[in-house]
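Saturday, quiet lab. Running sequence design on the structure tokens for the scaffold JK sent over.
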């Protein structure tokens, strides 16, 4: 009787890739799926929290309150602060024809006439328009001082309008001698112990789980 031997798995030849352990692959994919779901939850919660905070901060500002508010953990530890950045106003052309005619009458070399098929187009040189608007923005009023004559013009067709709305910026504390742990790390540590359940109940572990 011929002795039967079990077939041996061929060893990979040099340069041939070896498939990773399926369990390792599955764990990596599962980790990605879990973190992706949690990330979506956090992004949604953060968006709502920022909207609510900005609204309250705006109301506080209008009521004459401070423009900076500290972010504190339940135990009173400061982890960051939100500060208000004022909006900006800039000169803008609100009446193209009025502005163009002013340039034509006072600075004809900056007034361009272009001939195109079936029509004549008149415009203001972009560089000069930008110069006028920049000076008006700096002055806070629709005026332009002629650098050659010193004459101050009231510029028609130009108005000072909001160019960027006020905003709020949240910054975290940095490590220092008094508190070597940064605000980011302090929040992470508090989350792991379950101290932030009220801020994100869907994700934060319970206090009992955090103590295990």
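Result came back. Writing it out in full:
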């Amino acid at each position: 009787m011929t002795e039967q031997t079990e077939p041996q798995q061929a060893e990979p030849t040099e340069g041939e890739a070896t498939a990773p352990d399926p369990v390792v692959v599955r764990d990596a994919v599962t980790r990605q799926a879990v973190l992706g779901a949690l990330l979506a939850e956090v992004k949604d919660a953060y968006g709502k929290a920022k909207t609510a905070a900005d609204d309250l901060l705006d109301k506080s500002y209008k009521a004459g309150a401070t423009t900076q508010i500290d972010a504190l953990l339940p135990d009173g530890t400061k982890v960051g602060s939100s500060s208000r950045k004022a909006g900006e106003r800039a000169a803008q052309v609100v009446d193209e024809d009025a502005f163009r005619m002013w340039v034509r009458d006072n600075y004809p070399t900056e007034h361009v006439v272009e001939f195109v098929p079936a029509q004549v187009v008149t415009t203001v040189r972009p560089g000069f328009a930008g110069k006028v608007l920049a000076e008006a923005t700096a002055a806070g009023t629709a005026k332009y001082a002629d650098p050659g004559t010193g004459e101050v013009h009231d510029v028609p067709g130009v108005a000072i309008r909001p160019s960027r709305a006020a905003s709020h910026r949240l910054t975290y504390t940095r490590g220092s001698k008094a508190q070597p742990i940064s605000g980011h790390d302090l929040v992470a540590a508090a989350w792991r112990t379950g101290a932030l359940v009220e801020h994100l109940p869907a994700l934060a572990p319970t206090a009992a789980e955090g103590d295990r």
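Notes for JK: Residues 22-62 form the longest helix (41 residues). The two ends are 62 Å apart (CA to CA). Ask whether to fix the surface positions before the next round.
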